[in-house]
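User: What would this chain look like folded?
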Amino acid sequence: MDLYQLTMAQAYLELDMHAPAVFELFVRKLPKTRLFLVAAGLEQIVDFIESLRFTSEEIEFLSSLGLFRTPFLRYLESARFTGSVHAMAEGTPFFADEPILRVTGPILEAQLLESRVLNIGHFQSLIASKAARCVLAANGRQLVDFGLRRAHEADAGVLAARAAFIAGFDATATVESGRRFGIPLSGTVAHSFIEAHDSEDTAFRNFLKSSCGATTLLVDTYDTERAIRRVIDIEHELASQGAPSSVRAIRIDSGDLAAQARMARGMFDAARCEHIKIVLSGGLDERSIEGLVAAGAPVDVFGVGTALDTSSDAPALDMAYKLQEYAGKPRRKKSVGKATWPGAKQVFRQYDDSGKAVLDRICLADEHGEGQPLLSQVLREGRRIGPLPSLPEIQRHCRREVEALPPALHRLEEGASTFSVLISDAVRTLATAVDAAN
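Assistant: Here's the prediction, encoded as structure tokens.
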């Protein structure tokens, strides 16, 4: 957490400010390269809130700073979150100003959550939103996360794989993500393995011998066309011996990917190796994927790394965690460019008869809006009220909800989102009343 959460918490305690507060997590505006965002990270947020504790070592460190008095440090020994949380389901597309998380509880407790809730919700929503664009661009081709090595530290890489899977990626190369979340793992072989052998042919044969089942070979270390011929020769040798195929796919990681994919597909088909799939990687993002698909490149799988795990075109969201109500009274920030809508809120999404989303309306939490409410309760008195969805269930939900968006939002072009997000009359009236009182 940030230091100011603790200094404010001490002040709240000394001022006897324990009334309920409502904080909401939302994005002020969409990046110009995003027509929608995808909510992600709720499971880790819930885990954090439920397990919030201050250890004796942590309290001892805070004491050493000379910033905190004994009564506050003693309070921290038993500090727990006792409030409630409402949230959008993970995988739900959302837009500017829409709360994706609403925290209600004593203001001291709710304030302590701020930085970590933002940290988790921001990062996973950022990556899921980038991944959703890659999924749209791939148009049904499989996608694998290759981004661990370029992620901003290990936990970021592990959680990026989770967020990408939510948005529709099929697998990850990050082993810990497979262990922790059950995401299918996918991996090939590095150029170093090929280079460590005196010949490419020997490298291929040795790797295939050591592999437990059919695998993928990297063919662009020296000469892609020559390597593909070697793969075909190996497959023909195995077939003549009555042995099963040992090559599931090849991966091309450099050069003119579309041209090389066409060459590979033609060579494999002519050699009766139609079963061998083609994996493309190497600096890919949604725009290069879209270009390869549009060019008709015969690709089965895309590996996406750096652009995904760093969300390179939009590396940050303007996400905030702001007070909307305290002690039963609505609160509103009026700072230029950062104004908020007051009160605890709900988002209602309306669909047409074909199941396409047509508009969202931000209402007060006690309004009966038209459409489907997007926030539901996940924590009560500091504890989850039931099991959260599994990762495959979240992925299916995300797929349905992204497909339900208007086709115009599936484009990759830059520009303002055309989706209507309306503010209810009750919210506007409340904001006017708050402004008048201040």
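The mean pLDDT is 96. If you want, I can go into more detail on any region.
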